[in-house]
Amino acid sequence: ISFTEALQHFQSAELSKSRGKVQAPGRQGILAALFRCLRKSPRLQPQLRGEQELALAMAQCALDDSEGVHMRILQTIYQQLTCSRLGCPRYGAHWEELGFQGRRGSNPLPGEIPRPIPKIYSNLPWSNSILSQLPEPFPLLQRILVVFQNFPFCIMSVNITRIVIQALQEERLSRECNRRQQVIGVLNDLYAAAFLQLSRLWKRQHGTIADAGFFLKELELSTKKKPRQLLESLEAYLSR
After folding, report:
1. Percentages (nearest 5) of helix, strand, coil residues in the chain
2. Structural domain count of the chain
3. Which one, of 62, 48, 60, 51, lies nearest residue 23 by Cα?
4. 207: closest CA among 151, 146, 124?
5. E strand or H helix that includes residue 74
6. How many separate helices (H) and strands (E) can be counted in the chain?
7. Are residues 130 and 115 in contact, defined by beta-carbon separation less than 8 angstroms?
8. Alpha carbon distance 159, 153 (integer Å)
9. Tell me: the pLDDT tens digits for 167-190?
10. What is the pTM of this model?
């Protein structure tokens, strides 16, 4: 499934339960408003509120085995990251190839803590020719995995997603969203930019799994306080 088709599904889906779990930025109370003023952060423009609400609702949407689009998304992630042309069973140890942890036969994705599987990162059949044919953002993420053995991909992916969504909810990204007149595009680019910064931290400091918590704190600080700087770094990287 393509990103566009998946997004269109969520745009047209009934997400009332997920929307009910979202605390709207405008309803976070006087204290949140005060901090926003101290940061001199602008409010998100009204025409972008609907897209913001959609992104936050999607983040609250649980994986549903009975929903065909959810399963297609899951299969696409597996196929792209393993360079496999074949589908895979919904449950099984093969999900450990991506670093997910789960009891065999149980749900290995949302709801369980992922862990890295060290042997996978140096053995996947990735090559420059394969990477050049895959849609973004997979080439960037795969290059990171190829370079860094024992890289905790799933742990970091889940946590970077959490950080980016929190930054949106706290209106840390409003200036950039207003400038670009989009929300989800900014989220996607910021996710990739945070992964790029992580790869540089990991390489420069010879990171190990024990350093993951420290690196995540660094990423959270940069994502919430200097999102534009992160995005400019990504733009410079891609231009090269």
Report:
1. 65, 0, 35
2. 1
3. 60
4. 151
5. helix 68-82
6. 12, 0
7. no
8. 10
9. 999 999 999 999 999 999 999 999
10. 0.74
User: Measured between alpha carbons, how far is residue 104 from residues 7, 92, 137 in Å?
Assistant: 30, 5, 29
Query: Whole-angstrom distance between the N-terminal and C-terminal Cα of the chain?
Result: 29
115 occurs within a structural domain: no
Q: Do the beta carbons of residue 173 and residue 186 sit within 8 Å?
A: yes
Q: Which amino acid is at 31?
A: L
Q: State whether the Cα torsion 193-199-200-202 is positive or negative.
A: positive
Rounded to whole angstroms, the Cα distance separating 118 from 145 reads: 11
**In terms of residue numbers, what domain contains 9?**
3-15+45-99+122-239
In a domain, 72, yes or no: yes
Any domain includes 34: no
| Residue 194 near residue 142 (C-beta atoms within 8 A) | no
Q: SS3 for 213? A: helix
Taking the chain (240 residues) in consecutive chunks of 10 residues, what is each chunk's mean pLDDT? 93 80 58 61 91 91 90 90 86 77 45 37 32 44 53 82 93 95 96 93 85 90 94 95
**Which CA distances in Å does 11 have to 3, 61, 184?**
12, 12, 12
Nearest CA-CA partner of 114 in 80, 151, 67: 151
Assess if residue 110 is contained within a domain.
Answer: no
